[in-house]
């Protein structure tokens, strides 16, 4: 079966929904998805500097959290366009929490210099953002289709002209003038992640197969506080950083505070710093978790602000109100991804990327808390605007299909990536990972894992969420981004690209 549309958007999280919504009035759009992505699971909120807050302060916090490795022009777009996108979302029906005087409630999270995180349903912000965008999209009549994208179609002139979608036993070909990947990160390439299992790096693998560049793949962010349920794999419940924003602290097995004296912002240090301290504490104590102590927070506040976390705790028989809860780091977010410009264009004509799967440089070496929903809203709109203004012409030439190969041994790939490319890495481990991945084929998970390993091996310094115990310091000789592409055998090759410091 074949269909034809103007634009295919792949992924129904905040970035994909925002893109489709922005295009609905001007283009014939098809929204393709295999699940709703990570958006409905996002807890903390949307960061937005408005009123007495200054977007430039937000930009500074973003770049500090990003270890000074952000693209500052794109960060400015993020922080300056963010409040407007938030206002539009509210106008579309999103219900954010409000204080008694009717103003938006704002909370604090790690790395932010002031309270600027707006939230919904206490800790169910992603679900509300998702609901509001979905409802708005339904009113537009945009076509949707459930299915996994298993390949891109490329014209002989080098342009992406469509996709192949698997729905049950059928494969459908969809021809389009532009394809937008909004498929999220690489969560399921690791054994344990806060992301749902459908988030597995397919977008990265599709782009690489199509000849696109990916960048900053070594910057995989681990959330310091996933609930330690005793499960060693799969999707772990998040314990939002906003719990620490309200006053909770991390403790080791002996009841000692982990973050005291480790960073001026202590438990609200940027996420990479906290995750590293938690990992080091667990290693030192030989434990598989640490404790999060929220007992100093009034029970009413906890009930009102964190119903999702309370329910997750209750499911494993712990009570957030009266006792410490067990937490451990888990894979959370890919700061790098498919290299794009500020309007989502990749280096392959006709192929665009947006949201977590894209690398615009706004996260640098470590994403600031609650900047990801914001990224989806801002850059989703930017891609939609770009494709409204200028949609590539139809390419009537010959084309060929670039279908993904199957992963023969996904569990093995996940185990290797988890073992060697977690919070702490070193050259010997990364080389071992490359060797162990070698016989595992060229399926999407293996491709993603090899890309992370290649980038992490190349970068011989530590910055942001890439921490190498054999190169424990940041070194200005590595003020370069690692760009990965596939060679003719579908193996990653890397090159270095100087970090631009232009504002
Ligand atoms: C959290 O609520 O801690 C996660 C928010 C985020 O990933 O930005």
Automatic annotation (TrEMBL):
Pathway connected to this protein: Cofactor biosynthesis; NAD(+) biosynthesis; iminoaspartate from L-aspartate (oxidase route): step 1/1
Cited SUPFAM superfamilies: FAD/NAD(P)-binding domain, Succinate dehydrogenase/fumarate reductase flavoprotein C-terminal domain, Succinate dehydrogenase/fumarate reductase flavoprotein, catalytic domain
Cell location: Cytoplasm
Domain FAD-dependent oxidoreductase 2 FAD-binding, residue spans: 6-373
Reactions that this protein is recorded to catalyse: L-aspartate + O2 = iminosuccinate + H2O2
Any single GO CC term annotated in Swiss-Prot or TrEMBL for this entry: cytoplasm
Keyword Lipid biosynthesis included in the entry's annotation: no
Pfam families: FAD_binding_2 (PF00890), Succ_DH_flav_C (PF02910)
Residue ranges occupied by any Fumarate reductase/succinate dehydrogenase flavoprotein-like C-terminal domain in the UniProt entry: 413-490
Principal EC category: oxidoreductase
Cofactors demanded by this protein: FAD
Secretion signal, residue range per the UniProt entry: none
InterPro entries found in the cross-reference section: FAD-dep_OxRdtase_2_FAD-bd (IPR003953), FAD/NAD-bd_sf (IPR036188), Fum_R/Succ_DH_flav-like_C_sf (IPR037099), Fum_Rdtase/Succ_DH_flav-like_C (IPR015939), NadB (IPR005288), Succ_DH/fumarate_Rdtase_cat_sf (IPR027477)
Chief localization: cytoplasm
Entry EC number(s): 1.4.3.16
Domain of life of the organism encoding this protein: Bacteria
Keyword Chloroplast belongs to the record: no
Gene Ontology biological process terms in this record: 'de novo' NAD+ biosynthetic process from L-aspartate
Keywords annotated in UniProt: FAD, Flavoprotein, Oxidoreductase, Pyridine nucleotide biosynthesis
A GO term for molecular function: L-aspartate oxidase activity
Family: Belongs to the FAD-dependent oxidoreductase 2 family. NadB subfamily.
Described purpose of this protein according to its UniProt entry: Catalyzes the oxidation of L-aspartate to iminoaspartate, the first step in the de novo biosynthesis of NAD(+).
Name under which the protein is recorded: L-aspartate oxidase
